[in-house]
UniProtKB/TrEMBL annotation:
Protein name per UniProt: DNA ligase
EC numbers on record: 6.5.1.2
Catalytic residues, chain numbering: K122 (n6-amp-lysine intermediate)
EC supergroup of this enzyme: ligase
Protein's UniProt keywords contain Transmembrane: no
GO terms (BP aspect): DNA repair; DNA replication
Amino acid sequence: MNKVPKDVQERYKKLKDTVNHHRRLYHVYDIEEISQEALDSLKRELSEIEAAHPSLIAADSPSQRVAGKPLPGFKKVRHSVPQWSLNDAFSPDDIRDFDTRVKRFLRPKFQGAQPTYMCELKIDGLKVVLTYEKGLFTTAATRGDGEVGEDVTHNVRTIESVPLRLSRAVDVVVEGEVWMSSKNLESLNREREKQGEPPFANPRNVAAGSIRQLDPSIAAARKLDTFIYELAATSEKFPKDQVGELEYLRELGFKVNPHHSIAANPEEIIAYWETWKEKGRKQNYWVDGVVIKVNERPFEEELGYTGKGPRFAIAFKFPAEQVTTILEDIVFQVGRTGVITPVAHLKPVSVAGTTVSRATLHNEDEIKRLDARIGDTVILQKAGDVIPEIVDVVKDLRPKSAKPFKWPTRIAECGGNGAIERISGESAWRCVDKRSFAVTRRVFHNFASKHALDIEGLGKKTVDLLLENGLIQHFDDIFTLTEGDVLPLEGFAEVSAKKLIESIQKSRKVELARLLVGLSIPHIGEETAILLAQEFRTLDALAGASEEKLNAISGMGDIMAKAVYEWFHDKPARPDDSGHSGGENLKLIARLKKVLIIKNSLSMSRRRLDNLPLAGKTFVLTGSLGSMSRDEAKEKIRSLGGDVAGSVSKKTSYVVAGEEAGSKLDKARQLGVQILVEEQFLRLLA
């Protein structure tokens, strides 16, 4: 390795220190001593020296903000300091109660204690925890569950306002918020629209999504920023109060929000909150409230924590954003305990940055209180900026045709005769048959399963969440969901909500046979569904088939034919507003036809199938094939006119035996059925 000349070493150190100095002036103190163009020129010279002399590259070099290849996945990080969540306040009375609690708790040790309060803006972004050892940036992690988060160091180090080295060699753990400016969001969305990509709904989602990218170059390109607001641990002496703590963070080189104020009592807190309710909307970053902290550290230490969060702090949230939309329908959700919840289906509308089309109406008494009617214009808000709820009805805009809503006497999803009952002493109703939720879960699980509509990401757990939160009631409801409907659910973030909705949209194109499997028609499995799709070609033709015609199909027994006929000809539970006299299943089919594109690659007539090479041959598959999946093998057999059965009988023509073939192979030997290994099977297909 060539020795680096001393003058180059000295130039490199001065360049690095100068660039870091101007970074700190700009981000921490909002001072621009030299232009950004001049600073870029210094960075370029620094990079040129590092390219010529890689041994000089230091961990705190500006060039190391983006380094390395994309990661294969996120590592878990156990926090050295527990990460609590704040309790929320939504009204002035909540703040007065908070002050009362604080003083009551302090009274035994601090007689006559009069704490003051630090009011800080609550930035709407992604919380991160930064760790420094001897002044050098080592780790950035998300909050996670408070004990374990995800390692996002590779992305956070791309943010210019995050110092790679502090002003002195101290060990600290600090907490703060990653955010994107409204200006940068507008610029990013313009570029996305040019590329035909959907725009981001709000800067909070962009910040969260950017920090959870595996490729750090994506986060770097999005020009994120930070505000650091909490000193969680330090190897030095803690400041005596929150005022000193913020100044301490600034001295170390962190960017601290300049807007904060000391309040002597609850009324001053409320006045500060009132001021920022309006001013917050005019900032270049999203502000969704004010965080109130006891200023004096001895009081803070005495107050400590509850099971959820600190006693010495509270988040005073701004009123939720409100919008108006149309109440298109009221449907009923049956919960796992049989309790019935009315859910409003709304004309999709954007509220607090996300599009929603569902909102809970809670119970019968709430509908009566609101006098909510189908067709009404309603006022919608997000409680705590998360869960949508209807808070009022604009009665001046009510259509003349809108009728008072009548609570039903029966609900089909309750099973049996659909009987429901009001719980004594409560405003809730429930199914008389308590087993109905289990049945509903099973049919939805089947509808989304691999052998039916195959909706990726819509597994059993997610189906249960959608059902329990009243987001779906019938199969067609799945296809009207939006990202905003899914986002509040446990375990969902912007990326996962987007992926689920995209997956649902892809599944709109469905084979008729798969749809028949998904409908959970009694006695109808995969093979019978294929037989019906081949015979009737369309869903309407099948729905209109007589029991005699169904019974006449080769391979359909009396029980199967009766089950199919009765499913499509069920008696109506109640007529709908349009006067439609069909049963519930026919209504479901009518709604599904509006949201699905039903195709049928098996629509070839039986007569044409009889002319194909494998016509009249029945195959049973066992074990795994190396050249194709089992589903692919079935499709190839059917495309050549053959049938596939699930069990071996004397009528079976061939058993195809792959690796680790099971008991079907033994049964074939017992019955003398011809066995094909994979090579023989492939020759037959050819």
